[in-house]
Write a structure and sequence with these properties.
Blueprint: H1 14-33, E1 36-47, E2 55-66, E3 70-81, E4 88-100, H2 117-138
Antiparallel strand pairs: 1-4, 2-3, 3-4
Length: 143
């Protein structure tokens, strides 16, 4: 991260991190769907520690759930001083992406086949979050 990414305390703006999270979620979802995807929602973002100027930030995206046209991606964020040292977990984000056709209409995505017990648990948690977002929208609430 460079000085133009930071506030007066030397911490990287959350919005800079969120922009990268959005890009990583796009790549993970588009690879799975083999189509263009758009961001539908940021379900949850937890900043666990600040990122400082001069640190290298790593973003890792993984699909946790796939529905008919939408996918949930968890993006894990970590950082390390450019000189080396320990890796610090600095955040997690859950992003819902929707596959779209050339006209921008939602289109079907391949199913996700979780293999491990951890993947199956994450899939079920993703399904619950997706269902709660739908219920909230029907009630007119902001999820």
């Amino acid at each position: 991260m460079v000085p133009s990414d930071a506030n007066f305390m030397g911490n990287v703006f959350g919005g800079v991190i969120l922009a990268e999270v959005d890009r990583v979620a796009y790549v993970a979802a588009s690879r799975h769907a083999q189509r263009t995807c758009v961001t539908a929602s940021f379900d949850r973002v937890d900043f666990l520690a600040p990122v400082h100027v001069g640190e290298v930030v790593d973003f890792s995206g993984e699909l946790t759930f796939a529905g008919r046209t939408s996918m949930e991606v968890v993006v894990r964020i970590s950082s390390r001083a450019v000189e080396g040292g320990p890796v610090r977990k600095v955040g997690d984000a859950f992003v819902t992406m929707v596959a779209v056709d050339r006209d921008g209409r939602p289109t079907a995505v391949p199913p996700l086949h979780p293999l491990t017990e951890e993947e199956r648990a994450m899939f079920e948690e993703g399904r619950r979050r997706t269902e709660e977002r739908r219920r909230s929208r029907r009630r007119g609430e902001v999820p």
